[in-house]
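Researcher: Please predict.
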Amino acid sequence: MECKTRGIVLRTVKYGDSKIIVDFLTREEGRISVVCKVSSSKHSGVRRQYFQPMTVLDIRYVRNPRQSLGTIKEAHIAMPYTSLYTDGAKMSITFFIAEFLHYTTRDLHTDAPLYDFIEQSMAWLDTSDRGVANFHLMFMIRMSLFLGFLPDMDTFREGALFDLREGIFCLSAPLHPDILNAEDAKKMQILMRMTPSNLHLFPLSRNERNRIIDITLLYYHLHIPQFGDMKTLEVLREL
């Protein structure tokens, strides 16, 4: 069956001499994996350059119910970027987000609001020149809303701890070890205040930013059992 959809490239794997397997997050179909014959020439085949992480493509592909992989017949850039692959900081964040989504959307079916959130977020990152270093922090915590474990800010109190399993702030420690002390819980509260319009108002040091990354990834590891180790994390730590 032939299908048309809009999708975000998450990962590619070489498949023979002239083919790649592409993992997409699509608006209409959720996660799909397809085989594509690629070319370096703009005059033949689908161009290899189209499959950079987080590229948004309109694709036409054939889906076979008896096979796990579809086959791309046509692909076109749907949302051209101007700076994601030329600005060093943005490129590091983009590759991190792609790997992050590879793990967090692995079993995802159709979720148009989540897809729209991701696409709009990447469009903001591409065009913004303020607060970029904090983008991935805001992105990760806001995505937890769509996955069902957004921290409950109604429970926040000064000096509170944060229960990572329940996603709530509390004044006394629960009977398990997955909890943030008051200092780190305050970082979670700061994280929840971030929006695209105010990212530049949080002048975090590199150490503070890296601590928030670690806290947020721990939170995801607890709520998504198959969440893997982030290979792109070390490059991001240098921002």
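Model: The first helix runs from residue 88 to 104.
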